[in-house]
Amino acid sequence: RQLNPKVSAFQRRFVGEVRRCEEMEKTFTFLQQELRAAGRVLEPCPENPRAPLAREALRVQEQSEQLAQELREVSRNRASLRGRLRELRQYLHVLREGQRFTSLPAPLGSPPRPRALSEREPILDPSLHQHLDRKINFVAGVIHPWRVNAFERLLWRACRGYLVASFVEMPEPMEDPATGESITWVIFLISYWGEQIGQKIRKISDCFHCHMYPYPESEATRADTMSGLHNQIQDLSVVLEETEQYLAQVLDKVVLALPTWRVQVQKMKAIYLILNQCSFDVTEKCLIAEVWCPVRDLTQVQDALRQGSYKSGSSVECFVQRIPTSESPPTLIRTNKFTAGFQSIVDAYGVASYQEVNPAPYAIITFPFIFAIMFGDVGHGLLMFLFALWMVLYENSPSLQQASNEIWLTFFEGRYLILLMGAFSIYTGFIYNECFSKATVIFPSAWSVATMANHSSWSSAYLATHPSLTLDPNVTGVFQGPYPFGIDPIWSLATNHLNFLNSFKMKMSVVLGIVHMGFGVLLGVFNHVHFQQRHRLVLELLPEMVFLLALFGYLVFLIFYKWVKFSAADSLVAPSILIHFIDMFLFTSNAGNLPLYRGQVPVQTVLVVLALASVPVLLLGTPLYLCCRQRAPRTGRPAPVTTEEQEPLLEGQEAGSSVNATKEDVESGGHGPDAKHLDFAEIFMHQAIHTIEYCLGCVSNTASYLRLWALSLAHAR
């Protein structure tokens, strides 16, 4: 619990230590980024190291900062060497390709060159110097391939054609320093006359981010330059290889140490964050903390405090005292790998209050089953079951546990949920008799086509003109009784298959939905009995059940009654349940819709009146009861007697200094009748919200359960 609510986070006692932990975490983040950039995978910590002491924390901080500094320097040097090596290789390629442009040999067997200028004449042919009034200059370099077309057009327009530009792709791809991608650069060589045009060309090249290199005029100078570039490239390659080896050694050190450091610093930071929530006593020598702790874990807490006192060399042992309180404790629900997925679904809607009934154990069955009603298919359910079974069998595999894909982790954490969903889908698939949307004939069909043919006048002409034949269950022997399990496979061939499943699944969804809601309401019985609020059984639970059963429970009764009373013989005169249910709310009857039983209208009128009468009881019952109870005169109660059950938690503590709460104080969790002064406005508002939510929820949830019918049909289609 936060015992320093009025102290800002920057003024608490251990804020310096927390900042130091955050600085180390920043260093660890940098180290992890360097590992990721180098293609290294950081394995999880193989052991569970303890939180470091102050001296060990300083050592971790120094070593991590030293490694980070080394990585920065080595990475900077490697980037510089790579950049320099890339420039030398580009320069070498520029000189090689430029050599072809400026020293093009004459073809073998060609006639003597004419004195006039020609496109085939080499630019630097000595025999042509007498035709040149001005000196020819060159601009050479490399450009990104995407910018070549625009660069060439702008050169031609700006220089009005007083230049000769040549472009050729580089023989090997090289890294783009801006993006890190490997691209094939384009080498250009531009010859021009006049210094002004040369300045324009250089400015345009700078605007297009070209890498320009000096281009010697004579062949001898170019040969010497290329020879020097070869030597420099060899030397830089040796130095770069040694730098890469040293970088790999530093990264190896990081891979070994970083997982343990991260766990240690996380623990240390968590400890200091907890210490910042503690307060000091008057002498500022004792640290006081208030915590909620399960009774089962008190012994472990005491042992941990004793060990901490012993390891720290403290002369005074830490001790625990139970403090009486009327506050409701926080809810702790212990889960395992099987129940965690179901508990998280329940917690997404709301966490139960302290010692209330936890609906998650029931959701372990109801959630997969309701899903299976919508997903009922043997084949699809089997695929889902096998996929989940594979995850369950290999759940300890590091490759499955350490995957970084968020969608995959969602599936993996819900593997037991998917396992049950697949198993229940197989079960409901057998009921629907669907395997990959095809019917299976496990048992012989209960419908006999041969019997129908023997008792009917199906001639060849009749069969030729009627593509669909009707099987009449009223004919003896045509329908031989219900199918042993699930739906008869002959329905998959029927043209009225969808009409039959519509009626079946719609009624099934309503029945299961109302049973599910009624079960949820009945769980409140355990809460009311446990917290000794028996008045809520009469003033809340009873009106809720009356409202639910008088309206929607009666609907379930009508469904089953119609199933039992009417058979195939009198099915044509069977009334509509939906019209009866609408007439029930309108307090009327429909002459065209026959009653299901005698006295149906008075019974329905009484049920609607009961449902309406339960609403004000639910709304006003609990607030009025608590108001009357608060105003009633109280009788004096005897003072509590100290017994042996209220002994101190620590054996070395004297009984007189114990502040342990009584068992009733702890278990009531603030739910007791005298936990605090009642605020009737708040109670009435809470009850009004609960009443409106419950009454509207009964209607909307019943309609909402029809999605079982809709999605089941959609999945089958």
UniProtKB/TrEMBL annotation:
Per the record, the coiled-coil ranges are 53-91
This chain is encoded by the gene named Tcirg1
Q: Where is the composition biased (Basic and acidic residues)?
A: 662-672
- GO MF: ATPase binding; proton-transporting ATPase activity, rotational mechanism
Q: Any stretches that span the bilayer, and where are they?
A: 369-394, 414-432, 510-529, 541-561, 607-628
Recorded GO cellular component terms are: plasma membrane; vacuolar proton-transporting V-type ATPase, V0 domain
**Lineage of the organism:** Eukaryota, Metazoa, Chordata, Craniata, Vertebrata
Q: What is this protein called?
A: V-type proton ATPase subunit a
Where on the tree of life does the source sit, at the highest rank?
A: Eukaryota
Recorded hits in InterPro entries, A to Z, give:
V-ATPase_116kDa_su, V-type_ATPase_116kDa_su_euka
For this UniProt record, the keywords arranged alphabetically read as follows:
Coiled coil, Hydrogen ion transport, Ion transport, Membrane, Transmembrane, Transmembrane helix, Transport
Task: List localization entries.
Answer: Membrane
User: Topology versus the membrane, per the UniProt entry?
Assistant: Multi-pass membrane protein
Pfam families to which the protein is assigned, alphabetical: V_ATPase_I (PF01496)
Q: Which family does it belong to?
A: Belongs to the V-ATPase 116 kDa subunit family.
